[in-house]
Design a protein that fits this description.
Blueprint: H1 3-7, E1 12-17, H2 32-41, E2 50-56, E3 69-72, H3 80-97, E4 102-105, E5 118-122, H4 126-129, H5 136-152, E6 155-158, H6 161-170, E7 178-180, H7 194-203, E8 210-214, H8 223-231, E9 239-243, H9 251-259, E10 266-270, H10 277-283, E11 286-289, H11 298-305, E12 310-313, H12 318-322, E13 327-329, H13 334-346, H14 348-362, H15 367-384
Parallel strand pairs: 1-2, 1-4, 2-3, 4-5, 5-6, 6-7, 8-9, 8-11, 9-10, 11-12, 12-13
Helix pairs in contact: 2-15, 7-10, 8-9, 8-13, 11-14
Length: 385
C-alpha cells in the first residue's frame, strides 16, 4: 500500500470474491450462499473508510445495499471449472485494474498469483474430517486449495471456535491469525401466530406433530442414522419431514427409507425458499440435526429462534450453536438419538423448557455483528500493512 493511501482519508478498496452467491431456488442457496449474502448486506462501509468491491454474477441480490461497488462477471462462473479459471486468472488482473488494497475470498480459495494481501473464509474442514462424504475430485481440490489459501493468507476467518481450532491444528497456524465470525439469525426466524401455523400445516397437508430435518441431502448430514432412529421411535402419529435439495451421494438415503419400510412416514419436501423456512420450523414438533461435522450448524439457531425444540449431534461446532438450549446425542448413537426424540415428543415439560431457552440462545447470533466483525478483520490487517 502506498504512503499516499496510508495518509489519505480515502477509502480502502477491498476486493471480495462472492461468486458462490447462488441464483435460482435450489440447494446452493443454503449454507455458504446465505453466509456470504448476509455478511455483505451488513458490512459497515463508509463510516470505517472501506470500499468493498464485490465480484459476482448475482448482483441483483445486493443491488439494494448501499456502499457496495458491484462488479458483474461476464464469465459463466456458475460452472465450477469456469469459476476456478476466474479465480486463478481474472481475479489477479482485477486486483491490479481496480487498485485493490486487500482481497477477501469468501470461500476457501486464493489464486496462486497473489498481488495484494488477503483474507480467506474457511467454513469447515469436512472434506478432511469426513472425506467419504465427498466425491474424490472435489475432496482433492478442496484439500489442495484450502491448504494453499490458509498458508498464504495474512488473515483467516472461520465461523466457529471449533473451526478455528481445526484450521490452526491442521495447517499448523498461530491461532491469533484466525478470527471467528459467527453467522447470524435473520429476524424472519421467530415464533409465528399459532392459528397461522395451523393454516400452514393444513395447506401443506402436514400432521399435527412431525420431526423436521433441514439440510442438503448429502452424506455428512448423517440422515441414514436419523432414519434408523425414527424407525425405532415408539411414538404414534408422528412423521419425519426432510427439507432440503438433493446434493450429492444421496442415493443411500432413499434406499434406507425403502429398506426400513418408512415410505408412508417420511416426506421429502425438497428445497424450500428462505422466506418459507420459518413456517416449517414453527410447524414442527422438533428439529433433529444429526450432522457428523459442521462449520456452525445454522438450522439449529434458526429453529431455536422460532421456539422449536432441537435435538442435535454432539459433534464439531454444533454445541456452540445450540449451547444449553438443545438436547444432544453422540453422532453414531442410534439409540441415544431415539431416546432424545422420544423425550421431547412425550414430555410437555421438556418441550416447553426448550421452547423457552431456544430464542434466548439464538439472540446471541446476529448478522449485524457478523458484518461488523468482518470489517474489523479488514481494518486489523490494513493497520498492519
Amino acid at each position: 500500500m502506498s504512503q499516499d493511501k496510508q495518509a489519505a482519508v480515502a477509502q480502502f478498496r477491498i476486493g471480495i470474491n462472492a461468486h458462490l452467491l447462488a441464483g435460482g431456488d435450489n440447494y446452493r442457496r443454503a449454507g455458504i450462499h446465505q453466509y456470504i449474502w448476509q455478511v455483505l448486506r451488513h458490512l459497515p462501509t463508509a463510516e470505517l473508510g472501506l470500499q468493498p468491491i464485490v465480484y459476482t454474477r448475482q448482483i441483483a441480490s445486493l443491488a439494494d445495499r448501499p456502499g457496495l461497488l458491484l462488479r458483474r462477471s461476464r464469465w459463466p462462473t456458475e460452472r465450477r471449472l469456469v469459476r476456478i479459471a476466474w479465480e486463478q486468472l481474472a481475479w489477479p488482473w482485477l486486483a491490479w485494474q481496480d487498485d485493490l488494497d486487500l482481497w477477501h475470498s469468501m470461500a476457501f480459495v486464493l489464486p496462486l498469483l497473489r498481488p495484494v494481501p488477503a483474507i480467506v473464509t474457511i467454513y469447515d474442514l469436512s472434506f478432511i474430517y469426513t472425506p467419504e462424504a465427498f466425491p474424490g475430485w472435489q475432496r482433492l481440490y478442496l484439500r489442495w486449495q484450502t491448504a494453499h489459501a490458509c498458508r498464504r493468507a495474512e488473515r483467516i476467518i472461520t465461523i466457529s471456535e471449533s473451526g478455528r481450532q481445526d484450521v490452526a491444528r491442521r495447517f499448523e497456524l498461530a491461532p491469533e491469525r484466525i478470527a471467528v465470525v459467527y453467522p447470524g439469525v435473520d429476524p424472519a426466524y421467530r415464533p409465528l401466530p399459532p392459528d397461522a401455523v395451523d393454516r400452514f400445516r393444513q395447506e401443506h397437508d402436514l400432521p399435527q406433530r412431525f420431526v423436521l430435518h433441514v439440510g442438503t441431502l448429502q452424506p455428512r448430514k448423517n440422515i441414514p442414522l436419523l432414519l434408523e432412529a425414527f424407525a425405532q421411535l415408539l411414538v404414534p402419529d408422528v412423521e419425519l419431514v426432510l427439507v432440503g435439495g438433493k446434493g450429492w451421494l444421496f442415493a443411500e438415503i432413499f434406499a434406507k427409507v425403502a429398506a426400513l419400510g418408512l415410505q408412508n412416514r417420511v416426506r421429502f419436501a425438497g428445497y424450500v425458499p428462505d422466506e418459507m423456512l420459518p413456517w416449517w420450523y414453527n410447524a414442527a414438533s422438533l428439529l433433529v440435526f444429526p450432522s457428523l461435522y459442521e462449520g456452525f450448524g445454522l438450522p439449529v439457531v434458526e429453529a431455536m429462534a422460532c421456539g422449536t425444540p432441537v435435538v442435535a449431534a454432539k459433534s464439531s461446532s454444533i454445541p456452540e450453536a445450540g449451547g444449553e438450549a438443545a438436547l444432544y446425542f453422540e453422532p453414531n448413537d442410534v439409540t441415544g438419538l431415539g431416546e432424545q426424540m422420544a423425550l421431547v415428543l412425550n414430555s410437555t415439560a421438556v418441550s416447553d423448557q426448550l421452547r423457552h431457552q431456544g430464542p434466548i440462545q439464538a439472540r446471541q447470533f446476529s448478522w449485524q455483528k457478523a458484518g461488523r466483525e468482518t470489517a474489523v478483520a479488514y481494518q486489523a490487517l490494513l493497520n498492519q500493512l
